[in-house]
Specification:
single chain; 74 residues; mainly alpha; 0% strand; rod-shaped
């Protein structure tokens, strides 16, 4: 029969070192999960870009030719 050894944390040995390793791996796994789940998708919208171009044209930052060229690129 096999006895249950509670000091053998995930097979990394017993005592404080095994427990510290197990907790470290667990914390890193939780951190990675929340980091990837917590990312918000990029809401890039073509209309926003066109509005920025229109503002730049209206303020004189770009010429009408540059506006048309950039609008075609978008």
């Amino acid at each position: 029969m096999h006895a249950c050894n509670y000091l053998n944390f995930f097979g990394w040995g017993g005592g404080w070192i095994g427990m510290l390793l197990a907790v470290t791996v667990l914390v890193l796994a939780i951190y990675c999960i929340f980091r990837f789940i917590g990312r918000k998708p990029c809401n890039f919208d073509r209309r926003d870009t066109l509005n920025i171009l229109k503002r730049r044209l209206a303020s004189g930052e770009i010429t009408p030719e540059e506006y048309e060229k950039l609008k075609n690129v978008i």
